[in-house]
Amino acid sequence: MANNAATTKLAPNQHKLSPEQQALVQRIMQFTQHHLPGSTPAIFTINGDCGTGKSVILSQLFYELQQAAHNEHSQFSGTKNYFLVNHPEVLKVYKQMAGPEQNVLKKNFLRPTSFINQLHKRHERADVVVIDEAHLLLSQPDHYNNFYGDNQLTEILKLSRVVICVFDFHQVIQTKNYWDQEMLSQIVAPYPHAEYDLTHQFRMTAGPELIHWMDAFSAGELLPLPVNTRQNYDFRIYADAESMRQAIVQRNREVGLSRIVATTGYPSTLDGGKHYIHETGGFHMPWDQYNYTQTPWAEIPETINEVGSIYTCQGFDLNYVGLILSPLLYLDPAEHRIKVDLSKKTNNEMIKRRTDVTDPAQFTRMKHQIILNSVNVLLKRGIHGAYLYAHDPELRKALLQSYHSLN
């Protein structure tokens, strides 16, 4: 597969939108046209799980907005529009896309903090703001990212006439970005608001029964694998991590864009050095390194020799993904449920304390949910296949028993 696979996926007109997607783009355009003249900001939210085409819709929508903004006969003529995403690797993809597309410029694409600070400094208000991966917006102050407000969506609404954003609460993977439906509903309540739920799976060729199994697994429930698990989808469970790595390397040789990823729970520090994951079968690979290039991590050929994390893989399509479940995740034999052992955490940034959550039990549930969300995100990266290995012996044994029962 070509190295610009992710860019091609998001480029407008590269893939024909489904009738539902086309209708949604037009509905949002009408919503935007209706609310642009108003003095009160309006917000349109799209809800959808991994692979339901959210980013493709936003990409096409923004392309059409920008064409209309440069058409003197359009009601959008002269509008100043921005596309925001709080994920540096995904932002690289959008900036790559901007070059060849007429009237879609690199400067239109920003991180949310950059947008907020720039418009405050210029005392300006944007017309239309499109936000991909809105579940990654900061929902508390974060001095490391130069954000000193209480909530990025609240600040963006103050600086915009119309906001269009996508949310997937199953992709919330840090406490500083924590979102749930109640929090979102409270923020949008004062504004004109419309929403739409996407349910059709576009990324994965897996059947609905296997996707349901993955959703249950990511919620801590270990169901028997469905009998049609491998129909139109290459799903495998491995007894050792090295065999899985070798299979992913082979898939990468055959079709490209296949990578090993892992959940947090192995030592890693952004200190410029390599930090290795050691697992069964002689598995020995370093975590992904900080990517200083303009090419997304997943599209760099050499990263077949690294283990991807939630930070480098969220929002990306892979052809095949090999997922290592770290020591944080284990099977409770008494309840036959997948649980999280926070004593084995290695990423403190992922579950930093929130001052607005004072109930210790509530905060513990939040942290557990965030770890399980990362499983959901990583497990669903593969378009054509997902391979799975669990560090915990009991969980690995249960997965293998279920898998072998299919044969």
UniProtKB/TrEMBL annotation:
A UniProt-annotated Pfam family: SLFN-g3_helicase
SUPFAM superfamilies in the cross-refs: P-loop containing nucleoside triphosphate hydrolases
Domain Schlafen group 3-like DNA/RNA helicase residue range list: 42-392
InterPro entries documented for this protein: P-loop_NTPase, SLFN_3-like_DNA/RNA_helicase
Superkingdom of origin: Bacteria
Protein name according to UniProt: DUF2075 domain-containing protein
Native source species: Fructilactobacillus cliffordii
